[in-house]
Amino acid sequence: MPLYEYCCEHCDGIFEALRPMREAADPVPCPVCDRDGERIMPTTFTAFTFREGYPRRLPDKGTYWHLGKEVKSRIKGPARPFEHPELARPKSPPRRSKGDLEVAREKRHLQTKEAQRVRSSSGRRRSSR
After folding, report:
1. For 28-97, where are the alpha helices, taking DSSP H only?
2. Which of 65, 70, 83, 120 could bond to 88 as cystine, CB 3.0-4.6 Å?
3. pLDDT, tens digit (0-9, with 9 covering 90-100), for 73-113
4. Do 7 and 36 lie in a common domain?
5. Has residue 88 been placed in a domain?
6. How many other C-beta atoms are found inside a 10 Å radius of the C-beta of residue 38?
C-alpha cells in the first residue's frame, strides 16, 4: 500500500497515511484534531532501482549506494563484509608528537657524532703505524 501525505487546515498539521490507491483522494481524519485532512502532493520523492546487483537512486547519476551511502564505484575484488573501499579508507599512521620528534633528532645527531668519532679514531690508528 502506498504512503500518502495529508494536510489538516484546522490545526495546520501534516501527516501520512497508508491507504489503497483507490482511496487516496478521500479525506483522512487528522490524528491530532480528528477533522478531515486533504491529500497534498509530496515535496520530495525518492526511488531506487537495482542495477548490477546494487541499488541506484532514480534519477540515475551513475553512482551506487552501499548501506545507505553514495559511492562512485562497485566493489571489485576481495573486500571485508559490510565495508566499501571508498567508505573504509585505511587509517593513516599516527602523527609523532614534538617530544618524539625531538628524541629522534637527538638520536640521529648522536649517531652521526659517534660515526665521525669512529672514523677519526680509525684514521689515527692507520697513520700511527
Report:
1. none
2. 83
3. 877 778 777 788 777 777 788 888 999 999 999 999 999 99
4. yes
5. no
6. 12
